[in-house]
Design a protein that fits this description.
homodimer, alpha/beta, Rossmann fold, 2 domains, four-stranded parallel beta sheet, 41% helix
Chain lengths: 455, 455
């Protein structure tokens, strides 16, 4: 009974999987915020290199992973597929629980799966510097890591309140040579105009996105990078699921249930999409996207066009959203606080190829603590959402007396999130669910925006 | 050209290697502090279970690893042997640099290699609670992790200044269910008597050891555990080197140089001792123990009998020491601040089977930063000592035009030590070497203590 299923280095996937090629119906186009017409490659040229724009719009099922990207991936990939023997025994479940451990990367999460190719494609296109935003710091540190390997400068706009409260993520970025700037900053028009009104603004992800894009456009040889939501980001993450499929095959298993937590959607999609392909081809799999009840984008949001940022400057994306001004209540899973979600994940929900579920904060931390005390590794607060669902499914299997195979994505470790565990153990955290009125209020701003065809 | 050499789970070592069986001359005995006579099993029975005492005194070359210990080891073992391709290219060296990555364990270091068997042997002997001390927190968190897996209570006395400055290590222990107490505390006679004189005492490792031993002796069903120095601890760590030997064999390599950092000596010994065995049998290997210039136990200390703790209550150990009252200047590698070293490591130095070298603090952080920016992973400050030496050896190989194979022990990651990196990047750290006078002053207290025969 293996504890870890390891894939030899030479079996690392050589291509990413693009689910666009297998969708039952075409995606609704992304719209230009000013004209309302579909966005073209030329609209994105100022902020992304051509190869990434091509991937963003590609209909091709398989896209080659360049050799230099594979070489960097090998620093930590293929990642282990682990089996949670101790937890299974603790639960007394007949279910077999497997998880794909993306926490083994240098920054400790799945984010470098896309940071590495984004840095690489920028490098070959001559980009000297990449600007980005970060909330809790997972994405910023992944991009800092990736750019350090390719010799590109990196400028990260970090939401000021996180910048002050989470110095370790900032130091991590600096250790990899990046510049980390509290946002709003005096480096951009956006930042200066906000600071002139509110000098002590705590910032927001929306503001940080606006600053990073502005910084990218106004500096010579500089481009922008995003850590989730977009098609090319999702594409890069599919190495997770493609590896997991091979590892499952090695031990003669196949999942009945596939689970991932969702914020922007890239970690869930990375594991799930290769299995969604199997499902489209006829396999019977229950694929579950898990979100917090305090930011219930998929379970309570509307499927409509909305902006990716708070200030309404990005293209309009067809997705589940709580409205671009929605600000979730305090929640320690910083990576799950996004108002929208990847259009590809939304599309699959609309097509009934996946389902969504929301979990309460206290249940996620209870799951994380139980996990740490049985399986040893301390999960990120985001990951505990997937764990809570895996435990629920394992208990259901016990009740039903079924030998179910559960597979979930371990998006990252929680070694830089220990303050959240302390808050939980000290009883300082609470559950939070949005009322019907709060949801209705949040969704109002979406009424005047265009609607996708496939609702 | 592999980046990681992985050992299949079924090739995990089934026995630990006890170097005592292969020493060119017998070890000097450990002496009772009161009688001055060799310590017997009965003297240790109050604090350790019989199976660990047997290992401590064993002359057998191979000692079986129990099945339940192997099962827990498999949570993270066998650990990867990695090759530092990017660093090699950066240095332009013909040397091939390999490192054994012990940072992949749940607590992030090599310490659980001994915490797991110590928890297991206590469990089967009926121990309900284990008390220990911790300085920076690596050992305390490893024991908290191990006891949580075996359902034993864990009480960790943490040096108060670290307790206050490093909350993350404390929270980690609490996440695994341990109780972490700032030392000196009011829970022990030792602690109370110190607090009555100095209520704001910052504590020391010596005080914490005394408190943990007292707490173990005075509580029902309670024992004590130590994280380095003793023979049984070193024994458990040899899984590192035994795995590395198999991994080297898989790729047809053999090290010319083996490097490890030394504090108490267990991480160095764990990798090096199986190779020392080869050296005793005739292999030509340069085996280097690396310590900080600010705590130069092996390079500047005396080889003599000394106490393991500051208060002089433990048995007298034959070892290199700077005197049990020696307090090194501030240094961010908390694990390398011990005044003495494992008697087995000392013995090998006396026998010229290994050599010792000291490195300056700023050189170690420069090495750590270079490593992070080429190889990605951020090393613990202790590990950067081994890295600095590996880089020195790789540069030497370049100068000599030699294809040298370098192997070092990556004792742990630095994700909970980022504050030290920040201090370095902000120019707040300094080098520190002890003067001849300081050394002489420190060694004075050793004059009246017994001398080993094999000096």
């Amino acid at each position: 009974m293996a504890s870890k299923i390891l894939l030899p280095e030479d079996r690392i996937p050589k291509q990413w999987y693009n689910i666009v090629a297998d969708l039952p119906s075409p995606m609704d186009p992304v719209l230009h915020p000013a004209t309302g017409r579909p966005v073209g490659a030329e609209d994105l040229a100022a902020i992304f290199p051509p190869s990434l724009i091509e991937q963003e719009m590609s209909q091709k099922r398989w896209i080659d992973i360049p050799e230099p990207v594979l070489e960097k991936y090998l620093l930590w990939r293929p990642t282990p597929l682990r089996r949670a023997h101790n937890l299974e025994r603790y639960l007394g479940t007949p279910a077999r629980i497997y998880y794909k451990d993306e926490g083994v990367s240098p920054p400790g999460s799945h984010k470098p799966n896309t940071a590495i190719p984004q840095a690489y494609f920028n490098k070959i296109d001559g980009t000297k510097k990449i600007c980005t935003e970060t909330g809790a710091g997972q994405w910023g540190s992944a991009l800092a890591f990736a750019t350090s390997l390719f010799g590109i400068q990196c400028e990260v706009y970090m939401v000021r309140v996180s910048y002050n409260q989470k110095p370790y993520r900032r130091i991590m970025m600096e250790t990899w040579g990046a510049t980390c700037i509290p946002s709003p900053s005096d480096r951009t028009e956006t930042g200066r105009s906000i600071l002139s009104v509110k000098p002590d603004s705590p910032g927001s992800l929306g503001i940080a996105i606006s600053e990073a894009i502005e910084a990218a456009i106004t500096q010579e040889g500089t481009r922008y990078a995003l850590g989730s939501v977009l098609n090319h980001v999702i594409l890069h993450q599919t190495v997770i699921g493609l590896e997991a499929q091979q590892q499952m095959e090695i031990i003669g298993e196949y999942p009945d249930v596939v689970i991932g937590c969702v914020g922007g959607g890239s970690n869930f999609a990375g594991l799930a999409f290769p299995f969604v392909r199997d499902k489209i081809k006829g396999k019977d799999i229950d694929i579950i996207a898990v979100e917090p009840t305090s930011c219930p984008t998929l379970t309570k949001g509307a499927y409509t066009y909305d902006f990716g940022d708070t200030s309404g400057k990005t293209p309009l994306l067809p997705m589940h959203t709580l409205g671009h001004h929605f600000v979730p209540p305090p929640l320690h899973a910083g990576g799950l606080r996004y108002h929208g979600i990847a259009p590809l994940v939304s599309k699959l929900l609309v097509e009934n190829l996946i389902r969504a579920s929301a979990v309460q904060q206290l249940d996620t931390f209870a799951a994380g603590l139980l996990w740490a005390r049985t399986e040893g590794y301390i999960p990120a607060p985001e990951t505990t959402h997937a764990i809570a669902m895996a435990i629920e499914e394992a208990k259901k299997a016990k009740d039903e007396g079924k030998e179910k195979v559960i597979l979930f994505s371990w998006s990252g470790h929680g070694l830089l999130d220990l303050a959240a565990y302390e808050a939980y153990m000290e009883g300082k955290l609470a559950n939070y669910s949005l009322s019907v009125e709060e949801i209705q209020e949040a969704l109002k701003e979406l009424e005047h925006l265009p609607k996708p065809k496939t609702t």
